[in-house]
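hey can u check if this looks right to u? its 147 residues, i copy pasted from the old doc so theres a chance i mangled smth
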Amino acid sequence: MATSDSREVVIEASPEEVLDVIADVEATPDWSSQYQSAEILESYDDGRPRRVKMKVKSAGITDEQVIEYTWTDSKVSWTLISASALKSQDASYTLTPDGDKTKVKFDIKIDLSVPMPGFVLKRAMKGAMETATDGLRKQVLKVKKGG
């Protein structure tokens, strides 16, 4: 059964600065506790990641996933190519400039291939949503300050 969620955050940075942090997938384990490792398998001509292999741990399950990214000036989305604990995953960040800030909307839809109690899945999704928004905001601000 597919589960989806959505969350918004305002980040005191330009869309380009936000996209640059998202594009630095190899640093994701530094700011997202669910990611244990991330390795770029293939990049686009502009250097942005295309295919990425990552090890993710959530709700006590460790999974190795390969995802494929699609980039525009105001959106990054990804879809699952392979995994053992997920049948599918589609997610995106949509960025809307707002003065010197950026509104960031994160959407995710997953379909598990392993059974999981609803309350465990809800807790795992809540943590993932917080990291994907608040965690991203903290990392963007840290990078922007040169930290």
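The helical segments are 15-23, 28-31, 118-144.
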